[in-house]
Amino acid sequence: MNSAQDLVAAAQKQALEAIRSSQTAALAAFESFSHAAAKVTPDVPAFAQVPAFAQVPGVKESIGDPAAILDSTYDFAAQLIELNKEFVHSLIEAGAKVSDGSKA
Predict the structure, then answer these.
(1) Which residues contact 59 (CB under 8 A, 6 or more apart)?
(2) Phi, psi of 13, deg, nearest 5
């Protein structure tokens, strides 16, 4: 017989697989759309490459690298999740002490 933890783990695995599958499909659709759109739209330089903006001091630097910004944001979110996880574990431990009759 499966424990509740086994059932939760299986459900989480299925959810992650479904999300990964939908992300793969969304990425493929985005790539197809991008390639199709590129064929019918004129070449437009990136915002920081437009001469009027590129010559303004600090514009390129202030925009930053999108991949680095994304990584930094997700790293911060992971740290928040870990911090919250530690806090909830502390709450569980405190509750267990009370229910065991410990006063420490």
Answers:
(1) 48, 53
(2) -60, -45
Categorise residue 29: left if φ over 0, alpha if ψ from -120 to 50, beta otherwise: alpha
Which DSSP symbol is given to 3?
-
The answer to whether residues 48 and 54 touch, using CB atoms and an 8 Å cutoff, is yes
**SS in 3 state form for 88-101?**
HHHHHHHHHHHHHC
List CB contacts of 60: < 8 A, sequence separation 6 or more.
Answer: 48, 54
How remote is the C-alpha of 62 from its chain's centroid? 22
Q: pLDDT for 31-85, tens place per residue?
A: 999 889 888 877 765 655 555 555 667 666 777 778 888 999 999 999 999 999 9
